[in-house]
Amino acid sequence: MRVNLEDEEYIIASLPKIWGIALGLAGFFHKSKEGVLALTDKNVIFAPHYLYITPKEREKYFGDDKARVGKLAHYSEADLDEDISKSSKSWMIPLSSIVNVESVTSRKVNFLRITFKDQKNKIKKYEFAITRAVINYPQRQPLMYYSLDWDEWVNLIKSHL
Fold it and tell me: What is the rounded distance in angstroms from the CA atom of residue 71 to the CA atom of residue 41?
């Protein structure tokens, strides 16, 4: 039985090893997190969960420096629901609350930026990227990011708004 996802909600696309970054004042108090970025028919979901992927799988999801649209193998709606339940730091952004989706270049890196209104009607922004280098001590945090082309994801999310 699903707790966080509706029974008829399904995954359209998902990506592993994505780092979620909260912008603004919220980002000052929260560290970046590594996890799975998923688009369902009702939400954009970021669930902190480390998944190991092989170099061949990496090419499938991030080949030619593009964030590809596809589904993770062996990762179902039940797995996503479980990951959301495991971490209170999961982000669920209803598609109806999204104001803007764009690819933004900052520090010579392209980020996927999602701007939305939260439950209190305040504008929030989250950015997503994959890392080139990570520091593990004292806490796992990214050092450098890859510059990906996010156009496929931007167009997919906009088509479901």
Answer: 13
The structural domains of the chain, with segments of one domain joined by +, span 11-154
The model's pLDDT over 28-64, given as tens digits with 9 standing for 90+, comes to: 666 788 999 999 999 999 999 888 889 899 999 998 8
CATH number for the region 11-154 comes to 2.30.29.30
Question: Which class for 142: exposed (0-12), middle (13-18), buried (19 or more C-beta within 10 A)?
Answer: middle
Whole-model pTM: value is: 0.91
> Which pLDDT value is given to residue 134?
86
CB atoms within 10 A of CB 22: 19
